[in-house]
Structure formats: structure tokens, C-alpha cells
Write a structure and sequence with these properties.
Order of helices and strands: EEHH
Largest sheet: 2 strands, antiparallel
Number of helices: 2
Distance between the termini: 26 Å
Shape: globular
Strand order of the largest sheet: 1-2
Number of domains: 1
Helix content: 40-55%
Structural class: mainly alpha
Length: about 60
Amino acid sequence: MEELASSGCSPVSHANRAQWNDANNACLLELLIEQRRAGTYNGSVMSGDEYQAVVDGLLILFSL
């Protein structure tokens, strides 16, 4: 079964969605805290570079 992505764009299968479990939430939170400590995240707004730093961190953590 496929559903529209939250943006209303192309369908996203359940198999391709992020797995938001406690471990993955903890990893994301750790990376956001790093950005906050670096002064690049104020709790609600980040630039593309800061988002890329979080993505890069997740890729390292999950060895992708």
C-alpha cells in the first residue's frame, strides 16, 4: 500500500519510510544537539548546510 508523502507529492511505500523508533530518534536528537551547541540551530530553524550536517551524521552513524 502506498500513501502520499506528507508534502502531497509522489507516493511513498511503507517499506521506504524512515523507521522512527527510540534508537533512531536518539541518534537524530544527538545530531540536533550537536548543531545547537555549535550555534547553528536555534530549536526551530536551520540552513541547508546545517541540515546537510545532520544528514551526514546520520549516514556515518548508520554506516551508509
